[in-house]
Amino acid sequence: MSRSIPVVVLAGYLGAGKTTLLNHLLRAADGIRIGAVVNDFGSVNVDAMLVAGQVDATIGFGNGCLCCAVDEGELDALLDKLVHPDGPVDAVVIEASGLAEPADLVRRLLSSANPHIEYGGLVEVVDAVEFHDTRAKHIDLDRHLRLADLVVVNKTDRQSDAAAVLETVRGIAENATVVATSHGQIAPGLLFDRPAPDVGARQLSFADLLDHHEHLHDSYRSATFVANEPVNPRLLVEFLRKRPTGLYRVKGPVDFGAAGFGDRFLLNCVGGYLRFRRTPWPVGEPRRTQIVLIGHDADPEAAIEELVACVEPAEENDIFTALRHTDHD
C-alpha cells in the first residue's frame, strides 16, 4: 500500500506561540519523524535539538526529525522530496509565517498533484493573554479561526480570565476543536499517528529524556471501531458531519461492501475536512472497517456506539453520499 504523509499547516500571529509549539513537537516527537518547513532557521531552537548534521538547507535532529528552510517558491519542490512513500519523514508541519497566507497553503495542499500528500489540518495558535488586543488589531483573526481545524489557545496559565477567552474562541471557531495549553505543549498524537513500535533495540532519543513527556498523552484520547460487516455510506457520512465536538481526527479503511463496488475507502477526516481515497483491497488483507477516533476533551468510546448504528444494509443510492467526498488512486 502506498504511504500517505499528513501535512499540517501551523499558523498564528506574531507572539502567539506557534514557534514554541513547533519546537515542542520536534522535541516530543514520540517516535514520529517530523519534517518542519520554515522560512528560516531562526524560528527553531537548533541548539536544543541535538543536531545530527546539516546538508544544504536541511538540519537533521537526533530523534529522526528534520527542519528545512525554504522560501515560498521552493515549497512545492521540497514537499515533493519529503512526501513520498520512501521519504525521510512520517509527517510534515509547515509554519505559515513568511511562506504564505494559511488559507493559500491549505488550497495548495488540497489541489496538489502529489498523491501521497494527506491533508493534516490547519492549526491556528492564539495568545490567551493578548487575544482581545490581537483581535482588535487584526481583523482577519476571526476569519482565520473560522478556517481552522484545530485552535490552540496558548498561555492560558498567564491569563486570569482564560475561561472567557476560550468561550469567545469556541463561539467564533464553531467547527474547530479548541485546545487550551501552556508553553505550546500539545500531544503529538493529537496531530499525527504514531508509527508501529520497533521491537528491536534502539538508542534513546531526546524525547525519552523529557520529564514532562509522558503526561502529554492524557490530553487526548483515542478508540478504534472495527466492523466485519459493511458500513452504510450515507449513515457514516452523516455521523462524520455531526460528530461530537472535540473529536478531531477520524481515519482508517472502510468497507462499504457491494455499495462501494467492493473497493476499500480510506477515510481521512480532520476538523472540517472529510475525504475518502478509493483503492482496491490489498491481496490478503481482511475486508473490514477499522476506524480510529482521536479527540481532545471528547469521548471516542461513546462515538463508537453511534458508529455501530452505521452497520446496516445500504440503499442503492447511498454510496453517492460518500462518492461526493472521494478521490481515486
From TrEMBL:
<dbReference type="GO" id="GO:0000166">
    <property type="term" value="F:nucleotide binding"/>
</dbReference>
<dbReference type="InterPro" id="IPR011629">
    <property type="entry name" value="CobW-like_C"/>
</dbReference>
<dbReference type="Pfam" id="PF07683">
    <property type="entry name" value="CobW_C"/>
</dbReference>
<keyword id="KW-0378">Hydrolase</keyword>
<dbReference type="InterPro" id="IPR051316">
    <property type="entry name" value="Zinc-reg_GTPase_activator"/>
</dbReference>
<keyword id="KW-0143">Chaperone</keyword>
<comment type="similarity">
    <text>Belongs to the SIMIBI class G3E GTPase family. ZNG1 subfamily.</text>
</comment>
<dbReference type="GO" id="GO:0016787">
    <property type="term" value="F:hydrolase activity"/>
</dbReference>
<protein>
    <submittedName>
        <fullName>G3E family GTPase</fullName>
    </submittedName>
</protein>
<dbReference type="InterPro" id="IPR003495">
    <property type="entry name" value="CobW/HypB/UreG_nucleotide-bd"/>
</dbReference>
<dbReference type="InterPro" id="IPR036627">
    <property type="entry name" value="CobW-likC_sf"/>
</dbReference>
<dbReference type="InterPro" id="IPR027417">
    <property type="entry name" value="P-loop_NTPase"/>
</dbReference>
<feature type="domain" description="CobW C-terminal">
    <location>
        <begin position="220"/>
        <end position="311"/>
    </location>
</feature>
<keyword id="KW-0547">Nucleotide-binding</keyword>
<dbReference type="GO" id="GO:0005737">
    <property type="term" value="C:cytoplasm"/>
</dbReference>
<dbReference type="Pfam" id="PF02492">
    <property type="entry name" value="cobW"/>
</dbReference>
